[in-house]
Amino acid sequence: MSTDPKSVVHGILAEDLEVDPAEITDGASLRNLELDSLAVAELIVRIKEETGVDLSGDETRIADLTVGEVVLLAGSGLEAA
Length: 81
What we know:
The chain has four helices and no strands. By secondary structure, it is mainly α. Helix 1 packs across helix 2. It comes from Streptomyces lividans TK24.
């Protein structure tokens, strides 16, 4: 289980959700990456599986965040664990 939140989030987006790696930047919003609500839910589940960090309470607002903000959320959860 990787604990590097950036690697985890970028990997899930590229490998599981089939987002073009060239489009995955810290400033890219999940909406601009064309992730629908099911994809966002899968992202949250996969982050929990990979890191143990549960972001499900933030599900409604995560779709409006950037990749960098999701990485920070995942990382802050790891620091608290």
